[in-house]
Design goal:
By secondary structure, the chain is of the alpha/beta class. The protein has a single domain, classed as Metal-dependent hydrolases (TIM Barrel, Alpha-Beta Barrel). Helices cover 41% and strands 14% of the residues. Strands 1-2-3-4 form a four-stranded parallel β-sheet. A three-stranded parallel β-sheet has the order 5-6-7, covered by helices on one side. Helix 6 runs parallel beside helix 7. The longest helix has 18 residues. The two termini are 14 Å apart. It binds zinc ion (2 copies).
């Protein structure tokens, strides 16, 4: 690797939630080199969409093209890693294990992630979350998130997990206010983190929350501090979906490394 710091969570148009004219690898690399930071590309890899949606960038085994593109870039530049943000589905554990057996060795980094557990209702889309909340009570949605996330950790499919408490991206006091019966205690997030420690899973310190009204990392700095004192292992990601956010978050990524003492 080229530099002291690495942003482990960057999306290009290989991710389905980025426009066709969105950023490509080289757009990021230029900024990364100038700011002396390595990049790990962590594109969304969601089995259900890859199988069903012809417009998904990974439809029809395109993962091989992705790996080839990364390999080509590595010939001239050693500040990059090729990774995937792989969606956990509780009913697809067998396929996910097969996928890991086939591809884990070819990728530099894989992060497990939970955005949805009911197909096409990702809680990381505000519009979809609002739709979901018309059908299912908020307390239940939050409880289900924690339940599925716990299953992901305990499945031991992944060695790294992304944005531990991203359920609060839109459900928080600054946005969709939690109803009184919701358990939104810090303890609950800490317990997920403790489960990661127990299962030797690295936790993401995800800096994307500053883009949203919640205006904090996932998990919060306080939770990260506490889990660190309990010997959790972390990786740091901006979860950039644009060049602008990537560039403006670089100083924060570097500060996060210092905060966590991840620099040798
Ligand atoms: Zn994500
Ligand atoms: Zn992401």
């Amino acid at each position: 690797m080229n530099f002291k710091y690495t942003d482990y969570h960057v999306h290009t148009k290989w991710s389905a939630d980025i426009q066709e004219n969105g950023p490509v690898f080289n757009d990021y690399l230029e900024i990364a080199e100038k700011n002396r930071i390595n990049i790990c590309f962590l594109e969304h890899y969601e089995l259900y969409y890859i199988e069903r949606d012809k417009t998904n960038p990974f439809y029809n085994s395109k993962i091989d093209d992705y790996l080839e593109e990364i390999d080509q870039l590595k010939e001239n530049y050693n500040g990059i890693l090729g990774g995937l943000e792989v969606e956990y589905y509780q009913d697809r554990e067998t396929e996910l294990r097969e996928f890991m057996d086939d591809y884990e060795k070819d990728l530099d980094f894989i992060g497990g992630t939970v955005h949805e557990w009911i197909f096409n209702y990702p809680i990381t889309s505000r519009a979809k979350l609002v739709e979901l909340l018309e059908k299912i009570q908020m307390k239940q949605v939050i409880d289900d998130y924690f339940k599925v996330y716990k299953m992901m950790i305990e499945s031991k499919i992944f060695k790294n997990v992304c944005h531990l408490d991203t359920i609060y991206r839109y459900i928080n006091e600054n946005d969709l206010k939690p109803s009184d019966d919701c358990d939104t205690t810090e303890e609950r997030v800490l317990n997920l983190g403790r489960l990661c420690i127990k299962n030797k899973v690295r936790i993401e310190y995800n800096l994307s929350g500053i883009r949203f009204p919640i205006n904090r990392s996932f998990p919060s700095k306080e939770v990260v501090k506490q889990l660190k004192s309990e010997r959790a292992k972390f990786f740091i990601g901006s979860d950039s979906h644009s060049l602008e956010f990537f560039e403006e978050t670089i100083p924060k990524v570097k500060q996060a490394y210092e905060f966590l003492g991840l620099i040798n």
